[in-house]
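Researcher: Sequence recovery benchmark, item below. Answer with residues only.
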C-alpha cells in the first residue's frame, strides 16, 4: 500500500497558488487560448500562411504582414513562457513517499490535493501541446513563405526579401531571427508538455487511474 504525506508548508503554499491560478484558465482563458485568439484575428489562422506565400510572390504585399507577424510571434512566446512558469511551480511529485512521511497513510484531503494536482498538470500539458502544434505549423508555413520568396525570379523578389529581412532584424537579439524565435518558443512548449504530462501520470498512478504502458512510477 502506498503511504504519503503532503509537501512541506512552503511547497504546499506555492503549489496551492498554481493550482488556483491554472484552474482559472478555464476553457478560453489559458495562455495559448489567448494567444491563439490574437493569432487567428491577425494571422487569419492556418490560411494566413497561404496568404504569406502569396504575399511573398507578390513582393511588396509581404511588408504589410511584418507588424502582425511580430506581434503574433510575441503573443505565442508569451504563452509558452506562462506555461513554463506554471509548470515549474508544481513540485516534481505530488506527495512524499512513506520513507519520508513516516508511513502515514494518505488522507482524504491529500487525495483531493492529488486530484487537483493531476488536473492542473493535465491542463498545462494540453495547453503546451496546442502551442507546440501551432508553432510547428507556423515554422513550416514561414519556411514555405521564404522558399516562395527565394524562388521568385521577377522584380518582386527584392521587395519580398526586404520584408523578410526587416522581420528578422526585429528578433536579431532574441535568438537570431524570426524563425529562431518561433523555434525557441516551440521547444519551450515541447519541454513543458513533456514535464507536465509526466507530473500528470505521477498523480494518476497515485489515484490508480490510467497511465500509458511505458510509464514507470519514480522511486522517491
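Model:
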Amino acid at each position: 500500500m502506498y503511504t504519503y504525506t503532503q509537501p512541506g508548508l512552503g511547497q504546499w503554499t506555492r503549489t496551492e497558488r498554481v493550482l488556483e491560478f491554472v484552474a482559472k484558465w478555464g476553457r478560453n482563458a489559458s495562455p495559448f487560448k489567448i494567444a491563439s485568439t490574437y493569432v487567428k484575428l491577425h494571422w487569419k489562422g492556418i490560411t494566413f500562411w497561404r496568404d504569406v506565400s502569396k504575399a511573398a510572390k507578390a513582393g511588396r504585399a509581404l511588408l504589410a504582414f511584418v507588424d502582425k507577424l511580430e506581434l503574433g510571434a510575441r503573443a505565442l512566446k508569451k504563452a509558452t513562457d506562462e506555461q513554463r512558469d506554471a509548470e515549474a511551480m508544481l513540485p516534481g511529485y505530488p506527495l512524499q513517499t512513506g520513507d519520508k512521511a513516516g508511513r502515514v497513510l494518505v488522507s482524504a484531503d491529500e487525495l483531493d490535493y492529488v486530484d487537483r494536482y493531476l488536473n492542473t498538470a493535465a491542463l498545462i500539458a494540453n495547453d503546451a501541446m496546442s502551442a507546440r502544434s501551432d508553432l510547428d505549423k507556423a515554422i513550416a508555413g514561414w519556411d514555405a513563405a521564404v522558399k516562395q520568396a527565394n524562388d521568385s525570379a521577377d522584380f518582386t523578389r527584392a521587395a519580398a526579401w526586404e520584408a523578410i529581412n526587416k522581420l528578422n532584424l526585429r528578433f536579431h537579439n532574441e535568438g537570431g531571427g524570426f524563425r529562431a524565435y518561433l523555434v525557441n518558443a516551440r521547444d519551450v512548449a515541447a519541454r513543458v508538455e513533456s514535464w507536465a504530462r509526466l507530473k500528470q501520470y505521477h498523480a494518476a498512478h497515485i489515484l490508480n487511474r490510467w497511465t500509458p504502458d511505458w510509464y514507470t512510477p519514480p522511486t522517491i
